[in-house]
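Working notes for the structural subgroup meeting. M.R. asked for a predicted model of this chain before we commit to crystallization trials. I am recording the input and output together here so anyone reviewing the notebook later can reproduce the run.

Input as submitted:
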Amino acid sequence: MSTPTPANLDLPRGPAVVRSYGAVCLLAVMLSGVFAIPATQALSRSEFDATVSSGGALTVDDDTSKAFGQHSPDLPLKELRSFTFGNRLFNTNWVTAPASVKSLDGLGPLFNRVSCTGCHTRDGRGRAPDGPDEMMISMLVRLSVPDQDGDGQPDPHPVYGGQLNDRAVLGVDPEGRAAVSWIEVPGQYPDGTPYTLRQPSYQFVDLAYGPLGEEVMFSPRVANAVFGLGLLETVPEQDILARADPDDRDGDGISGRANWVRNVETGELALGRFGWKANQPSLRQQAASAIAGDIGITNALFPNGSATPSQTHARAQPNGNDQEGVELSQRQLDKLTFYLQQLAVPAARNTDTPEFAQGQMLFAAVGCNACHTPQMTTGPNAAHALLSNQTFMPYTDLLLHDMGEALADHRPDGEATGREWRTPPLWGLGLQERVNGHTHLIHDGRARNLEEAILWHGGEADASRNRFMELTADERKVLLYFLNSI
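Returned structure, recorded in token form:
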């Protein structure tokens, strides 16, 4: 089963097709009665504005395979040099120390990939393996055990650490790998249309440092797209918190919560914004954590390396430390962070079509926008002018939501429970296949397309999923058309 795309839709073009915002409002009122939700809820949360571009000043008109890797056309020349340097670091294949290029050695000794782009191909999304014999390429598995030190948080595995490293430098054994198998789960829409979802099953094989133990908690994660993150980082904290409703006081069944996580540079708790469970408070910490955990490159924020104390042979391997005592210098981390902050957002497409307008209305009417908030505005940012006071369309609230038992990983992260996930942005979904060669979605890549991703929604999203299923086949196609266009 494949998700319908704008190129192959056979859509109704009679009077039912919405052709203006006024018609959108009228049909939203009509559908709100069908779905038993207040019309004012659907309309007040839509926040649609045809004059707002996808990424504000960081919008690029690019629908090619390079759409996720562009910078704003207004980026000043001096900052363009920093962007280019950061781009080079993002795409660099790190090598084992000692090497002739001292600034780019120190790989491992245990790692998952040799470069950032190894997971975030062309700055886009990763995918899960097709079966148990395929290695994870743009995906990894987080590991932890129940709290041992009394801080209320799960601890890294005492032997394997915080994630399973399935690769290692020459002479060191990789930790092992996770093999995923898929179970097909059939279903049917109320109108009789059949569908099939795939449910993952994991087995840990080739474990080189002993068994994981019965208490291990694990969470498979595919790589997220990294464009537009500078805008999300600049949204004022109070604006994000204003959308939170942890006690569901408005009674709509949606109770988004903030994740408060440790800023490793200040030692203070900070609002989490990035990662599948909003477990990183800043792009700098996100980048530093990923390059340490995924590639084994130490840095000022994470100086301890990828090998745990019990992995003595791995820890004895040569390192690529510089005069700062780490393998990634502060200057390199600054440039890598700047690159991530300045990656632009591809413009929405097909926005002047009647199908886009109708799909936009359905998006609000089924309640998708209760979590996938269409519009945000950044605050002032003296350091990066292009990020200041920008109104943009990410389709996320950056909050945690209970997504139900089917998607639960049962692994807490900060204040996120084992059933909660951060609302992922939806911008650029329609370009994912062109950029990354697949349409897989959800934190573990189980959804093979947008339609399956919607059908996997549960918990707080139960009602919205059910409303989607109650749509006619043509209406479902139009809603998917809209999502593939933003």
